[in-house]
Amino acid sequence: MLLRFLLNRVEEDIRVEKERILVVDDEASVREMVSKIVNLIGHEAVTTGSGKEALEILKNEPFSIMITDIRMPEMDGFELIKAVRSHFPDTYIICMTAHGGSYTYTDVVAAGATDYISKPFTIDEMRAKLNRVIHEKNLILDLTRKSVELERVNAELKRLDQLKSTFISSVSHELRTPLTVIKEFISLMLEGHAGSLTEDQREYLGIANKNIMRLTNLIETLLDFSRIESGKGLKLRFEPSRLMEVVEDSVMTFSQQMEGKGVTLENRLDPDLPHVLIDRNRMVEVFINLIGNGIKFTPPGGKITIDSRGLTEKRDYLKIVVTDTGVGILPEDLPKIFERFYQGETTQTGVVTGTGLGLAIVKEIIEGHRGSIYAESKFGGGASFLFTLPVFGIETIYHLLLNPMLEEAEKDKSPFSMIRVEFWDQRTKRESELNHESWEGVMYALQKMVRSVDTVIPFQNSAVYLFSFNDKKFTKEIAERIQVKLTQGNYIPKGIDVRFKTYTYPKDAHNKEDFLKGSRLLFKEG
Fold first, then answer.
1. Rounded to an integer, what distance in angstroms lies between the CA atom of residue 95 and that of residue 84?
2. Deepest of 98, 99, 144, 441, by most Cβ within 10 A of its Cβ?
C-alpha cells in the first residue's frame, strides 16, 4: 500500500516532457524496478542486460538519458560510458553503483557520466536524480537554442550594420561631386569671373558658400564614421609639422562665422614649440571640430583660447588645450561626450545641433596619434578640451611608424625597407643642409615619386627617410631613381651630391628586433 501510494504521488506531482531512457543492468530485477520508476514518473523506459546490446540499441533508436550499472560481464559500465560518450555525446548518463564500491563520484564523472546513484536507492532518490539530470539537460538545451537564436540575430544586426555603413559611404561619395562643382562655381562668381556682383548678391552667395562648407564637413564626418564602423579605422599619414601653422589653417575656416557672432579666438601657442609628428590634415579636422564646438556653445562676446601646457613627463608628447567661455557641459554629460551620436550638450537657445559624431572622430584621430583626450567643464563656466600630440623625434618615429609597419610586414610576411637620402657638400666633404627653396623642391619631387602607401620623413633640411614595403633590390632601384631625379632635375644646388643608404627586412636584418637596432645607426648618422 505504501509503495503504491508513493508511486501514485510521483505520477500525479510530476508533469514533465516525456524522455526516452535506456536502462542497462545485468540483473533483471533491477532493470524491472528502474523501468517501473521511470514509467511511473512519466517517461519511457527501454531495458537491456548488457553494454554491447545497449550500444546496438543506441545506434538504432534515440535516447536522451541512459541509466547503467557499473559491474556487468563482458563490457562493464566504465567501458560502456566511454563508448557512449564517444559515439553519442548528447546522451546524459546516470551510473548505478554498489554501496561501498571502490570507485567514487570523481571516477564515474571522469569516465564521462553525468551523475551517479548508490544501490539500494529509494523511489524518491531515483526521482530526484532523474529530475536533476533532466532539468540540467533542458537548461543546456534552452541555452543552446538561445545561443543559436542570438547568433542569428547578431548575424542579422551585422548585415544591417554593413548595409548602413555601405549606404553612408556610397551616399557621401555621391554627394561630394556635385557639391564640389557647386562650390567651385560659387567661388568663381565671388571672384568676379561671371561679372560684377551687387552687395546683396555677394552676401547671398557668401551665405550659400558657408553652408556648402558646412555640408562638405558633414560629408567628411560621415565618411570618417563609415571607415571607423567598418573596422578600417582612420588612415593617418604622419609628417613633422609646426602646430602653429595647423591652428592658423583651422582658424581661417571660421573667420566670418566668429565675426558674425562676435566670438574672438586667441592663439597663445608659442611659435617656437617643437615640431609634432602628425597627420596634418587630420589635425586640422580636430581643431575645426573643437573650435566649431566652441563657437556653437559660446554666447556673443565670448572667447576661445588655444594654448599649450608644456610637455609630458617623458617629454615625448605635447599637451594642448582648447578652452571656451560657453555654456559648459553638464556633469552627467561629461563622461559621454566622446561617444558616437551622443548629443547631451545644448546651445544658448537650448536646441541640440549637429550629428553627434564630431567629438567621437576627434577622439579617434587623437588616439590614432597614440595620444589621449579628455574634457573639463563646470556647467555655466565654459569647457576645456585637453589632448596630447607626439613630439617629432626618433622615439616617436619608432612608436608611430617603424614598429607598426614592421609588425604589418611580419604579419603579412612581406619585405620592409628604409632609405636614407642625404646631401653631401663636394667641397667640404661633409653633409650639407639645403636652403629653404631647395628643400621645398626636394620634398615636392619626392612626394611625386613615392606611392601613397610609402612614408616620407624629412629631417632638418639635411636628410630624408623613406619607409616602404619593398624588397632590397627594388629599394635600391628606388634610391637610385631618387638620386638621378634630384640631381638631373636641378632640385639641388651645384656642388651638392645626393647620396643614399638602404636597410631592408628580412634581407639585411632577419627579424624585427635586429632591424630596429640596425635602423638606429642610420638615424645616429644624421
1. 13
2. 441
Q: Which helix (H) or strand (E) holds 522?
A: helix 512-525
pTM for this structure? 0.61
User: Which set of grid coordinates corresponds to residue 322?
Assistant: 582648447
Residue 279 C-alpha cell reads as 597627420
CATH architecture observed for domain 2-121: 3-Layer(aba) Sandwich (3.40)
b/e per residue 216-239 (b: at least 16 CB within 10 A): bbbbebbbbbbbbeeeeeeebebb
Question: Which residues neighbour 475 within 8 Å (Cβ) at sequence distance 6 or greater?
Answer: 417, 419, 468, 502, 504
pLDDT, mean of residues 199-213: 81
Q: Which of 310-324, 352-366, 398-412 is predicted least confidently?
A: 352-366
Secondary structure class of 333 (helix, strand, coil): coil
**94 pLDDT above the threshold of 60:** yes
Cα angle, residue 123 at apex, residues 121 and 71 outer, rounded to 5°: 35
* Domains 2-121 and 414-525 fall in the same CATH topology: no
DSSP for 456-474, written as a single string:
EEEETTTEEEEEES--HHH
Please tell me the CATH code under which domain 414-525 is placed.
3.30.70.270
Residue 516's closest CA among 400, 406, 369?
406
Residues in the chain: 526
Sequence-ordered list of residues with C-beta below 8 angstroms from that of 309, at least 6 positions apart, any chain: 319, 320, 321, 386
- The whole-number pLDDT of residue 12 equals 46
Where do the domains of the chain lie? 2-121, 239-390, 414-525
